Amino acid sequence: MTERGPRRGVAARPGDLDAWVRTPELSIRRTSDAHFTARLTIDVTPALRGRIKITAFQRGVTVAEMLRALLSGEFPDDGEPAR
Questions:
Q1: Long-range interactions of 75-83: CB distance < 8 A, separation 24+
Q2: Which residues touch 42 (CB under 8 Å, ≥6 apart)?
Q3: How is residue 52 annotated by DSSP?
Q4: Burial tier of 24 (Cβ tally within 10 Å: 0-12, 13-18, 19+)
Q5: What is the predicted pLDDT for the residue at 71?
Q6: How far is C-alpha 50 from the chain's CA centre?
């Protein structure tokens, strides 16, 4: 049997929240010189996924475009809360 190394805290809190949020990760991809994208995975029910896909199709956009716009409106870049 092999020995395991010391366990690391998966959910350890960062010391500097702003630096932690802006730190590039392996999942971040460069789409141009000035823009980065990061993958965000969430779990939704099959019914909700279907409603999202139908709505995106009816609006003539991709699911990703629609959800980016929704999230951008909820979490504006000015640092102020949306609500």
A1: none
A2: none
A3: H
A4: exposed
A5: 93
A6: 20
Q: d(Cα 15, Cα 9) in Å, to the nearest integer?
A: 14
What is the model's pLDDT at position 25?
58
Where in the chain are the domains? 17-74
Whole-structure pTM value:
0.54
The tens place of each residue's pLDDT in the chain, 83 residues long, gives: 566 666 555 556 667 766 666 666 554 555 555 567 788 999 999 999 999 999 999 999 999 999 999 999 998 887 665 55
54-61: which pairs have CB atoms within 8 A and are 24 or more residues apart? Answer: none
| Coil, strand or helix at 55 | helix
In the block, tokens 């969430």 appear at 42
Residue 10, Cβ density class (10 Å: 0-12 exposed, 13-18 middle, ≥19 buried): exposed
Enter the tokens of residue 16: 């500097």
